[in-house]
Design brief:
Blueprint: H1 2-29, H2 54-74, H3 82-108, H4 116-134, E1 149-151, E2 155-160, H5 162-184, H6 190-211, H7 228-249, H8 258-275, H9 281-285, H10 287-310, H11 322-328, H12 333-361
Antiparallel strand pairs: 1-2
């Protein structure tokens, strides 16, 4: 538990102290955000605000994890494990894809960066490599970081995917989650605050799993997760990094996380769900991200359907994603952000309730 707290404190301090340095550096380099012309007009004042702030989140998470393991090594408690390193690989890999997307936006002075195919290709390569590696690195108990069974709050024994099926499902989860966080990152602090709550939940989930491993306590209801304590350290570091970044990203934002941050955070959420064997539970924990994604799907689908049927495309919402619908409806940005944080908190509480109910039910 002390190691988890150390990781969180180090990551928080790194994020909250280093983000202003990133802001100054990016301003000097002219790394400012481009704004969609067809978006809410209130966003035009944000043009030029430094972006790519996700580098502070990713960097702080890695630093918190590294320092925690330095302390563990000094105490003779062992070093990093495969699961934690794989989770960070997924975060850093997708963060690199997002960084390239943000950099192209800045260089070409437009609100669109990588073309859709190139962006999905980057996500595909990182996601597939992660999934393949997650089925390797067996420990001396024969456990790999990921399982070929579909999972809810633990593996569902009756739903085996096989190696190929797992790789496909893992990629779909990673792609869907990273893009969902990317869609949500449209208002100051919205994605960072919601992500912090989810990583807080994963910190508690993996900590409980570490205290009830089948390796240490082979009893009913134990968990067969490979490195739950290492995953708790990663989750705590990410949670604290989000909170530290939120200090500077809260309305009015002094820096945006950009695709660098949103893809990295979404990827890490997916990685945590896969490595803690809580893949289906992620839909409950990330209810806000799911709702915002569904709103975009409905908007696009209905527009294309009505255009085919009537020749004129119609929209369900004033604008998608969902938070822009309320913004165009006259809601203040801060009101939308706080209410959506409440929705995110309720979703996380519901997800944790499902996990804890199973935890208690299995003794």
């Amino acid at each position: 538990m002390k190691t988890i707290l150390v990781a969180a404190v180090v990551s928080l301090m790194t994020s909250i102290l280093c983000t202003p340095l990133v802001v100054v550096y990016f301003r000097r380099r002219g790394f400012g955000q481009e704004i969609r012309i067809d978006g809410p007009q209130t966003h035009l004042v944000k043009r030029g605000t430094p972006t790519m702030g996700g580098v502070a989140i990713v960097g702080s998470t890695v630093v918190g994890y590294a320092i925690a393991h330095v302390i563990r090594a000094i105490r003779g408690e062992g070093g990093p494990n495969a699961s934690g390193l794989l989770a960070l690989f997924l975060m850093v890999g997708l963060g690199a894809v997002g960084f390239l997307d943000d950099f192209i936006k800045i260089r070409r002075q437009r609100s669109l960066g990588l073309r859709a195919r190139a962006k999905f290709l980057g996500q595909f390569v990182v996601g597939i490599v992660f999934a393949i590696l997650a089925l390797r690195y067996r420990n001396h108990y024969g456990l790999t970081p990921a399982s070929t069974h579909l999972s809810y709050v633990r593996d569902i024994a009756t739903v085996g995917l096989g190696s190929v099926g797992f790789v496909i499902i893992a990629y779909l989860i990673i792609s869907a989650t990273s893009n969902a966080v990317n869609l949500t990152d449209g208002l100051d602090g919205l994605a960072a605050g919601a992500a912090a709550m989810i990583f807080g939940a994963f910190t508690l989930i993996s900590f409980l799993q570490s205290r009830n491993q089948c390796l240490n306590h082979p009893a009913a209801g134990c968990y067969t997760v490979r490195d739950p304590l290492d995953l708790a350290i990663v989750a705590a570091s990410a949670m604290a990094a989000c909170f530290g970044f939120l200090w500077w990203n809260a309305s009015p934002a002094q820096i945006f996380m950009g695709d660098t941050g949103s893809l990295a955070l979404g990827g890490l959420m997916a990685g945590m769900a896969i490595l803690t064997h809580t893949e289906l539970l992620l839909m409950a924990l990330g209810g806000l991200f799911a709702a915002i994604t569904v709103s975009s799907i409905i908007q696009t689908g209905w527009f294309k359907f009505t255009r085919i049927r009537t020749g004129t495309g119609r929209r369900v919402f004033r604008m998608a994603p969902l938070h822009h619908h309320f913004e165009l409806g006259g809601w203040e940005q801060i009101t939308i952000i706080v209410r959506f944080w409440i929705m995110a908190g309720l979703a996380v509480a519901f997800g944790m309730g499902l996990f804890y109910a199973d935890f208690i039910g299995n003794g």
